[in-house]
């Protein structure tokens, strides 16, 4: 059995990941891949319980280290219960956020720094990495407006101050610059169809899917 591929989508609030994941999954199914769509925090029963602790409540509910540990604990459970078995079974797994979100949100946004977050990720992941990470980039104000229009801004992270969102946008761009072989930055400010075309181009060229 050939191992599947692991594709992650990343970006700030309202970048359009959920929209694009649906379209990417449809394209992969047309190309006769078996597809699993999942998300973080969450994606397994235990990790979904931890998600409830993370996305609701006051913005300062957790200290930054505790928050990073909760995301990392949820990630390990998600990998063991959902992602690794699906990849072993030959599925293409598309994940809405993964470890780059911990680096961007907790490492850059909340100021924990790269080193501590990288240490946590090594503990949870070993040397496992996505085959391709698509970073959807959008000006902060546009993303927050999109997210608020969709959901009313009830998410804890959407309510963090604008400076936080600028730090995490820079964080994602820095991650992409450090790992250009794994990461591709996609301009998410274009219409849905144009963003989709850019994503399919990366998936085709980098992973050979078509
Ligand atoms: N988090 C997560 C951490 O802090 N650390 C971590 O380690 C991890 C894993 C999860 C939160 O947890 C944080 C980050 C997050 O804040 P979530 O509920 O999963 O929260 O929310 P998000 O991942 O932020 O997802 P959103 O729903 O906010 O945004 P999406 O999925 O990026 O965007 P989407 O597709 O829902 O689109 C938003 C709106 O924009 C429209 C859509 O129709 C929708 O209304 N839209 C467009 N409009 C114009 N042009 C386009 N191209 C558009 N694309 C979509």
TrEMBL record:
Domain of life: Bacteria
Positions bound to ATP: 11-18
Spans traversing the lipid bilayer: none
Substrates-to-products reaction catalysed: dTMP + ATP = dTDP + ADP
InterPro entries registered for this protein in UniProt: P-loop_NTPase (IPR027417), Thymidylate_kin-like_dom (IPR039430), Thymidylate_kin_CS (IPR018095), Thymidylate_kinase (IPR018094)
EC number(s) per entry: 2.7.4.9
Domain Thymidylate kinase-like residue range list: 9-199
Signal peptide: none
Enzymatic class: transferase
PROSITE patterns for the chain: THYMIDYLATE_KINASE
GO-annotated molecular function: dTMP kinase activity
Entry keywords, A to Z: ATP-binding, Kinase, Nucleotide biosynthesis, Nucleotide-binding, Transferase
Entry's family note: Belongs to the thymidylate kinase family.
Role according to the record: Phosphorylation of dTMP to form dTDP in both de novo and salvage pathways of dTTP synthesis.
PANTHER family linked: THYMIDYLATE KINASE (PTHR10344), UMP-CMP KINASE 2, MITOCHONDRIAL (PTHR10344:SF4)
Protein name: Thymidylate kinase
Organism expressing this protein natively: Azospirillum aestuarii
């Amino acid at each position: 059995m050939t191992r599947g591929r692991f594709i992650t989508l990343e970006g700030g609030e309202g970048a359009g990941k959920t929209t694009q994941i649906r379209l990417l999954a449809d394209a992969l199914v047309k190309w006769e891949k078996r597809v699993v769509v999942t998300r973080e925090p969450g994606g397994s029963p235990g990790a979904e319980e931890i998600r409830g602790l993370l996305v609701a409540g006051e913005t300062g509910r957790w200290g930054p280290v505790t928050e990073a540990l909760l995301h990392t604990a949820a990630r390990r459970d998600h990998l063991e219960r959902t992602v690794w078995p699906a990849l072993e079974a030959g599925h293409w797994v598309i994940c809405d956020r993964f470890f780059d979100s911990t680096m961007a949100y907790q490492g850059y946004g909340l100021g924990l720094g790269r080193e501590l977050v990288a240490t946590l990720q090594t503990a949870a992941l070993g040397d496992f990495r996505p085959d391709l990470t698509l970073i959807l980039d959008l000006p902060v104000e546009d993303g927050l407006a999109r997210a608020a229009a969709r959901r009313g801004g009830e998410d804890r992270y959407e309510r963090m101050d604008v400076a936080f969102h600028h730090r995490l946008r820079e964080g994602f761009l820095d991650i992409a610059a450090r790992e250009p072989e794994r990461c591709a930055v996609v301009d998410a400010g274009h219409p849905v169809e144009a963003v989709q075309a850019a994503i399919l181009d990366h998936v085709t060229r980098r992973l050979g899917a078509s």
